[in-house]
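Quarterly update from the structural biology core.
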Amino acid sequence: MLSVVNLKFDTSVAVAYKSASQVARVLTEDWLAKNMYCPICGNISISRSKNNAPVKDFVCESCHSQYELKSKRRNSDQFQSNVVDGVYKTMIERISSLDNPSFFFMHYDRYEVNNLVVVPKCFFTPSVILKRTPLSDAARRARWEGCEILLKSIPLIAKIPIISNGVARPQQEVMDQYDKVYKLQTQSVEARGWLMDILHLIERLDSTFSLQNMYAFVDELKIKYPKNNHIQEKIRQQLQFLRDNEIIEFCGRGIYRKI
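Predicted structure, tokenized:
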């Protein structure tokens, strides 16, 4: 297995471009194509997808997993801000299809990768996509509606680090973590939403918490799911799912522990 060790961009591939955004896109996509393995199956590389493929930049030729890359020039060890993306309607349709891609999020500075995380596709729902204000009628693309990915709306457990502060993690370590998180994949967008909500609530609690601690969020969840009259049952269902997938541990007497 390979490790991502060459963090520098090949600036020669962008000499023909003048726009800063085009240069950034070319450099970051070139780096990923040359240096990134598939975190799902371990294939030594991932390939660029066909031009204009919607919400899909790269494909693993071995397991056919799909990926999109989003990058930003920023020297930081965390991804806290929103990430600008393309057409809102296209993004919503793509992530709602259950055939959506996983995402790489990259920070770079001085033509070098600082941080890279991958987020499995099961953590993308319409709730993490923000519609941007349409362009004005006077704009070249009048009424065009873009979107942003709300990274704060994605649970921390889903942001799997590959490179942190210029240091690459061992490939097997990344793959093991991805495999554990990817087991949370569900068969519907609604189920994804519940999973995301419960994980966020758990992140707000101590490392050891109780069922009663979770029930304290019932009113908050009722606002989000006004037609659901079985919120407590849904909470227990999600806790059991997370327990079965070894994200939390049941300690008995309504007590749980984060693993």
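The chain is about 30% helix and 20% strand.
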